[in-house]
């Protein structure tokens, strides 16, 4: 009779199976599931590291339309898809002038610490017939303060109705180009280029674009913004 192996008294020639530590395996699985859940449930802004600050007036504050239809919200959605490391903060106020923006800019910069500032002000100065030189000085200070924080600036110009006279409208328009040249910043001459004169693109006031026009507004901005990202 053949003797049984001393290593396994119950079965000849076999090796003892080591017990499996199921506690470690269970803990690893639970941790993996928790991390996966966090990745799926965290909002896109939680992953963002860089901020675009939109600092404008009613044209950027979705005046007369739902906020979710405005070009700034559309920009936020586009960045979430194409540049998820970027987030958008909208500090635009309907009716804002360059003087009001100047009073608010320091607080906005401190609060949002943006890498890019989209500066879209001046239209209300023009509609109120304010001195174009004063408007330019206010915008220049906003640009300088933004650049002092290390932010890049995209300046967006606007046109005003011709009823103020050709001399005023020309002087108003020229302020933006001079600012862009003097401060060497990115520049979109007219936010509503190829939009304001198209059917269905402007609200009844003739000043603010409709919801249908907002994707076109975003296209104008995106052309200048994308290389800055």
Automatic annotation (TrEMBL):
<dbReference type="InterPro" id="IPR013830">
    <property type="entry name" value="SGNH_hydro"/>
</dbReference>
<protein>
    <submittedName>
        <fullName>Acyl-CoA thioesterase-1</fullName>
    </submittedName>
</protein>
<feature type="compositionally biased region" description="Polar residues">
    <location>
        <begin position="1"/>
        <end position="20"/>
    </location>
</feature>
<dbReference type="Pfam" id="PF13472">
    <property type="entry name" value="Lipase_GDSL_2"/>
</dbReference>
<dbReference type="InterPro" id="IPR051532">
    <property type="entry name" value="Ester_Hydrolysis_Enzymes"/>
</dbReference>
<dbReference type="InterPro" id="IPR036514">
    <property type="entry name" value="SGNH_hydro_sf"/>
</dbReference>
<feature type="region of interest" description="Disordered">
    <location>
        <begin position="1"/>
        <end position="23"/>
    </location>
</feature>
<dbReference type="GO" id="GO:0004622">
    <property type="term" value="F:phosphatidylcholine lysophospholipase activity"/>
</dbReference>
<feature type="domain" description="SGNH hydrolase-type esterase">
    <location>
        <begin position="54"/>
        <end position="213"/>
    </location>
</feature>
């Amino acid at each position: 009779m053949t003797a049984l192996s001393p290593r396994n008294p119950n079965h000849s020639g076999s090796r003892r199976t080591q017990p499996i530590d199921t506690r470690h395996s269970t803990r690893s699985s639970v941790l993996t599931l928790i991390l996966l859940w966090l990745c799926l449930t965290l909002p896109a802004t939680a992953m963002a590291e860089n901020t675009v600050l939109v600092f404008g007036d009613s044209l950027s504050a979705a005046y007369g339309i739902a906020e979710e239809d405005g070009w700034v919200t559309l920009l936020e959605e586009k960045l979430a898809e194409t540049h998820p490391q970027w987030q958008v903060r909208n500090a635009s106020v309907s009716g804002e002038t360059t003087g009001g923006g100047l009073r608010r800019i320091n607080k906005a910069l401190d609060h949002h610490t943006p890498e890019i500032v989209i500066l879209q002000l001046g239209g209300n100065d023009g509609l109120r017939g304010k001195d174009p030189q004063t408007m330019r000085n206010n915008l220049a200070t906003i640009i300088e303060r933004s650049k002092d924080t290390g932010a890049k600036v995209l300046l967006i110009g606007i046109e005003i109705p011709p009823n103020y006279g050709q001399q005023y409208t020309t002087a108003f328009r020229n302020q933006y180009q001079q600012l862009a040249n003097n401060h060497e910043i990115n520049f979109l001459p007219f936010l509503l280029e190829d939009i304001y004169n198209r059917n269905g693109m402007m609200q009844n006031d003739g000043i603010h674009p409709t919801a249908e026009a907002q994707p076109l507004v975003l296209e104008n901005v995106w052309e200048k913004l994308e290389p800055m990202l």
